[in-house]
Design a protein that fits this description.
The chain is an alpha+beta fold and 150 residues long. It has helices at residues 91-101, 123-138; strands spanning 6-15, 18-23, 26-31, 52-61, 66-70, 102-105, 108-112, 144-148. It contains two helices and eight strands.
């Protein structure tokens, strides 16, 4: 067995930090970090006990007959199973919702905050130093920005 070799193994056990694999006469470990470059909630989202998987050998201990293996190098497309949410993206969806959180009257832009912004301790600084400064410089007729409470 050599480092860099592609092998097939059978998953024999799954534990919190990885999965044990039998590859011929060798016992291998796929560490949790070798399943995905993204967050791994559960190794069971990738493999199950008894499954035959294609792996890359990262390191070999010939004396102990142990392998360090990688799953993610050869299995990029698998991961947490779930549906991808459907979003409406684009300026039309933003324009349609604009009246819910922004209003412009007599030179004043009134901003109604939603979500995490509502409890933010630096929201007034963001409004005055960021949004107001930009609008005053870039949009004719704007004379100020005010936050509207619910």
């Amino acid at each position: 067995m050599k480092k860099g070799e592609i092998v097939y193994g059978i998953i024999t056990n799954i534990i919190g930090y990885g999965a044990f694999v039998t590859v011929g006469d060798y016992t291998g470990l796929i560490h949790i970090s070798e399943f995905s470059d993204n967050y791994v909630r559960s190794i069971s989202d990738f493999v199950e006990v008894g499954e035959k998987v294609k792996l890359k050998v990262i390191d070999v201990d010939e004396e102990m007959k142990r392998l360090k293996l990688s799953y993610k190098v050869l299995n990029k497309s698998r991961g947490v199973k779930g549906e991808i949410p459907k979003f409406t993206i684009g300026f039309k969806s933003l324009r349609d919702r604009m009246p819910q959180f922004i209003k412009f009257e007599e030179g004043i832009v009134y901003v109604k905050l939603h979500g995490a912004c509502v409890g933010c301790t630096s929201v007034d600084i963001t409004l005055k130093d960021g949004i107001e400064a930009l609008l005053l410089e870039e949009v004719p007729g704007v004379i100020g920005v005010e936050r509207v409470e619910e």
